[in-house]
Design brief:
heterodimer, A: alpha/beta, Rossmann fold, 8-stranded mixed sheet, 4-stranded antiparallel sheet, 12 strands, 33% helix, 22% strand, globular, B: mainly alpha, MetI-like fold, 14 helices, 0% strand
Amino acid sequence: MFPSKTQKPLVEVRGLSVDMPLAGGKDGLRIVDNIDFSIAVGERVALVGESGSGKSVTARAVMRLDPVARLSGKIDFEGRDLLTLSEKEMRHYRGSSIAMVFQDPMSFLDPLMTIGDQVAETLRIRGIGRVEARKRALSVLDELGVDRAAERLGSYPHEFSGGMRQRVVLAMALVGEPKLLIADEPTTALDVRVQDQVLDLLDDVSTRRGLAVLFITHDLGVVAGFAERVMVMYSGRIVEDGDVHAVFKDPKHPYTRGLIRAVPRIDQDLEELYAIPGAPPAPMARPAGCPFNPRCSDAFDRCRAELPAVLPVTGERVACHLHDRKGA
Amino acid sequence: MTGLRVYSWFLLRRLGLAALTLWGLASLVFLMVKLMPGDEAQMAAGADASAVQIEAVRERLGLDAPVIMQYLGFLGRILRGDFGTSNVTLQPVLSDLSVVLPSTFELVFFAMVINLTLAIPTGIVAAYRSGRTFDTICRIAAVTLGGMPAFWLALVLQYVLGSLWRVVPISGQASFGMAAPVVTGAPTLDAVVAGNGAAFIDALHHLILPAAVLAILFSTQIFRALRTGLLGVLKSDFIMAVRAKGASSSRMLVRHALPNSLNPVLTLSGTQAGAMIGSAVLVETVFARKGIGAYMFNAVAQKDTFAVLGSVMFIGAVVCIMNLLVDIAQLLVDPRIRSAQFGGSRA
């Protein structure tokens, strides 16, 4: 049911929901709604969706990074449910078991601290001595191709270019030798050439270190070359989850189909680029039934009445009544 | 970076700027004298001087010369440290100031210490736990205390602490017969010089209330600046990145959030040190302390023009020096400002 390289899951997320508290109200706003997924050791999974689909919120939920978000469900990491840990216990997982790289490397670096100190900090927090931490920080920066790394440990973020900064952010994440790396749109803020460099680097590093990666992006073009599996998110739910090649070749969910059609292709001469009509619903105004039904050309009565369950469809998982009807 | 040369060049430029500012202030002071109603020679000679005496003073002070010559002469005298002579004490204003200033500096220094020790910890906790009870109490206190007139706060505290509860002396700088011999003019320092522990405690005891009055009003500003700054920084992306490394809240606050919100606090406390000397006029008068405030108050009351102008020039100079110190402090805290000033390398 879950296509993966090995059978042993590193993370297993069950029924995860994320509610954001609203000012004044006691009920939160449901941003992520009852999702299941798992990531195997060393597996690379892409989480794809439009802005506001809940992908970043999902990523932050796995690390419990947002102090105001209310999380429910289960996040099993190597046999322990992260949602039952105390904040102090959770800190031991952050940076050493699960690490994160972020979208805009400039705003995610402390402008007043040297690069060397920021990379070494992950280790210093864990009681590793100054000299040793610096040595390891340097070796990671070297590994990631920051040239003259030794001289530049004392430099500040503003003295680096965008691509170099992203390497520093990546070094910050890798220095604690995590098993899972969550990459939240790590290439979005970079120009195309640097994007490719960073992707190659990420590819390289995760292969060499056997690192599982949850790669969050809205750019399907980036997914195919990097991930083994792709999960498509729409309005807080996972609507399709399967092997990258299978999904690209034969997308099962109408939304995935739309996303793939919307990627511009060099071998097709089109008058106009395709775009899915309409816009994703706001979390407070989700339509009844399938949240995608107002934008879906294949929608029928049941789609407007009943929320489709996530069901297995030929080695994938899909949440769409079209496939449920066939299967039944 | 060729550190020392670059820093001394920066200092030189800033000192030049400070000198320009002081020149502007001196010109303004000169203009004030010229625009003030009444005859300067009459004022300098005193109220009961005869016509002959007034003319003699006019000639001695060069007030019969054209205004531009008077202006140049005025600047020249200031450069030589001559701020004129007080009509009341009959001493050069500069020597009067050197007698009263140490006491004011003592007051302002302690007020600054109380100010920052009050505002910084509360600001940090209020921002970190924003919206909770502690934050609400602090914000209400800041608005209430910050909105009180200094003299009123001084009187209330005098009444409650000094008169009702008798925990601190109501006024003065030392108990009768307790003061150490005057060396510097600042009672606490004098006690230290004399090695007199009892006198030191006594001087502190007298200092605490006026310093607290001065501090409370200013610390509400620092509190608000720090709280607002920290709230902004705590929402920023890099704080999330720090948390993602597994940092504890205290590490995140002290090592990352606080340094990034210090800039407005630095700027503000620099301005405040100057403003505190100005506010000392009220506090020193209410608490019957020696100092530039009390000196200025008497000077104004007795139309002692040169004493007032000298004090104004002096407070202006202190503000300039404080601004210079703030510029240097910011340079030390923020590498981006260093790069902007000195042209950093970019890779």
